[in-house]
Amino acid sequence: MGKFAKWLGAGAGFTMGGPIGAIIGYAVGSFIDGISIEDFTQEQQDYQRQTQRQHQRGRATSGDFEISLLILASVVIKSDGRVDQRELDYVRMHFVKMYGKERANHAFKLFNGIMKRQISTRQVCMQIRQHMSHSSRLQLVHFLFGIAKADGHVTSPEEQEIRKISGYLYINDYDYSSIKAMFYNEADSAYKMLEITKFATNGEVKKAYRKMAKKYHPDKLEGLGEEHKRGANEKFQKIQSAYEQIKKERGMA
Where does the UniProt annotation place the signal sequence (predicted)? Predict the structure, then answer.
């Protein structure tokens, strides 16, 4: 299986099994030249034997996040009944930015196969939430909104699909609204990002900022590698900007 197999096997952990593993197997066996489903199945079995102890601990790897992202991205991109090239370009651009060109090329090769597959969003999300931390799941939702906004606006079907995914991932309404507000230019967006209302006191604003800065700090994704910490920094900066905007509006010190 060559370089592609090395990329796939080196990073993936829990995603090599369950419903996500079945999706990967379909994409590999049907859409990647020179690789058979038998080769992939053997790769799955070998990898799972080698990392059984890690699987029992339930720790997600950088590769797990990468594959989960590809699958959920395909769901959002197809949610409005069309595939927009700008959204595909957004996925590729961010994968190149996070992982480098060679790794991104492998990922996109798999992504092209995933896009052809009918996916049970609920089953995929159930597998993800069993193995990924809350911070990692928040980062997934943030990236999905970025994909949806790549063509200039988030359509209603896209927003509904991301909301459904968030529910399956056990992301509560406050966290969902906070991330969503980062992609909408509304009068109260800064307050929504901090999970408060305009009626909050200055003390409550400061307390909310400290809480959200801690929640969205890039170090929360340290276990997934530096590439994901860099991606998480965008959320963190949005929280900081929201706080500075509110301070300026209120004349807070």
Answer: none
Residue 242 — φ and ψ, nearest 5°? -60, -45
Counting Cβ atoms within 10 Å, is residue 65 exposed (0-12), middle (13-18) or buried (19+)? buried
pLDDT digits (tens, 9 = 90+) for 173-210: 999 999 999 998 888 999 999 999 999 999 999 999 99
Burial 126-153 (b: 16+ CB within 10 A, else e): ebbbebbbebbbbbbbbbbbbbbbbbee
pLDDT of residue 179: 94
State pLDDT tens for residues 15-38: 878 898 888 888 876 655 555 445
Among 99, 79, 77, CA closest to 87: 77
Give a three-class secondary structure readout of 113-149. HHCCCCCCHHHHHHHHHHHCCHHHHHHHHHHHHHHHH
- Do 119 and 75 form a contact (C-beta atoms < 8 A)? yes
H helix or E strand, kind and range, residue 35: none
Give per-residue pLDDT as tens, 105-163: 888 888 888 888 889 999 999 999 998 889 889 999 998 998 888 878 888 999 999 99
Q: Which among 204, 238, 235, 207 has a CA at the least distance from the CA of 221?
A: 235
Burial, 73: exposed, middle or buried (Cβ in 10 Å; 0-12, 13-18, 19+)?
buried
Residue type for 233, please? N
Q: Which residues of 167-195 are buried (b: 16+ CB within 10 A; e: fewer)?
A: ebbebeeebbbbbbbbbeeeeebbbbbbb
Answer whether 50's CB lies under 8 Å from 137's CB.
Answer: no
